[in-house]
Amino acid sequence: MLAGQLRAGGPVRCVCALPNGGFATGSMDNVVRVHRPGQWEQPALLSGHQQRAGVDGVLAVAPDRGDLVSAGRDGQILFWRDGVQWQQWGALSGHGEGVEGTNVHVVSCLGRRSDGALLSGGWDKTVRAWEGDQQVALLQGHTIAVNAVIGLPSGEVVSGSGDQTIGVWRGAEKLRSCSAGAPVRTLCSCGGSIFASAGNDGSVRLWDAATARQLAECKAATAYVLSLAFHAGAAELAAGA
């Protein structure tokens, strides 16, 4: 049942739940909005992302040890701290440096490695791992933009790309590759080495990262599936299209 609707300043591209029961959204007006319980219609507005090369948009938001991290089309990964007011306290960049092409600086997705390192994927076809303000790994091997990246409890990093493949990595080494059958838009950890993928063909696929074997497939929509979420307690997987 729909409990209510909240307006943003532009098309919403990403949303994440926060530990305090609230949630954050990123939208195409370059603003991150943080909604607190009981104050749903008065969000905190986090402005730090900017237009670059004629494009706008916050494409990823994620919790960051009680705070928040966001990434967008300006190539910036911004860190936000919750206090009396939300404040930006750090920034990372690096996607697209030394790479030729249009908008190769865009950061399209965020994730966490099992050891806590921040993961970012971008239109420069790479995944990067960060500890503090230092890049500690560069994962190269995709031929089109990386649209999704996650860390698995088993220790692997999994990336999904527009090149219709899924990469399974440990450190900077690509261990395995899965043929997804369509451009990959989203990934979701399902516990251990199991993960789900979905994308342009509307199908959700279940995989084992240890073997790169597809375990199951379900048609969830007639077109793009853009988001996945796993409910561990109920062993249920939800797809958004």
How would you summarize the topology of this molecule?
Elements: E1 12-17, E2 23-27, E3 31-36, E4 39-47, E5 58-64, E6 67-72, E7 77-81, E8 87-92, E9 107-112, E10 118-122, E11 126-131, E12 134-140, E13 146-151, E14 157-161, E15 165-170, E16 173-179, E17 184-189, E18 194-199, E19 203-208, E20 213-219, E21 227-231, E22 236-240
Structure description:
This protein has 241 residues and is an all-beta fold. It folds into two domains: 1-93; 103-240, Methylamine Dehydrogenase, Chain H. The protein is 0% helix and 55% strand. The chain contains no helices and 22 strands. It has strands at residues 12-17, 23-27, 31-36, 39-47, 58-64, 67-72, 77-81, 87-92, 107-112, 118-122, 126-131, 134-140, 146-151, 157-161, 165-170, 173-179, 184-189, 194-199, 203-208, 213-219, 227-231, 236-240. The model has no long low-confidence stretch (mean pLDDT 92).
Task: Output the strand order for the largest sheet.
Answer: 1-2-3-4
Low-pLDDT regions: none
The string of secondary-structure elements, in order, is EEEEEEEEEEEEEEEEEEEEEE
- CATH homology superfamily of the largest domain: YVTN repeat-like/Quinoprotein amine dehydrogenase
Measured distance between first and last alpha carbons: 17 Å
**How many helical elements?**
0
CATH topology of the largest domain: Methylamine Dehydrogenase, Chain H
Q: Cα-atom Rg, whole angstroms?
A: 17 Å
Portion in helices: under 10%
- Assembly state: single chain
Examine the secondary-structure arrangement and name the CATH architecture of the largest domain: 7 Propeller
Give the CATH level 1 class of the largest domain: Mainly Beta
| Mean pLDDT across residues | 92
Most strands sheet? 4 strands, antiparallel
How big a fraction of the residues is strand?
Answer: over 45%
> How many β-strand stretches?
22
Globular, elongated, flat, extended or rod-shaped: what is the shape? Answer: globular
Broad structural category: mainly beta
| Domain count | 2
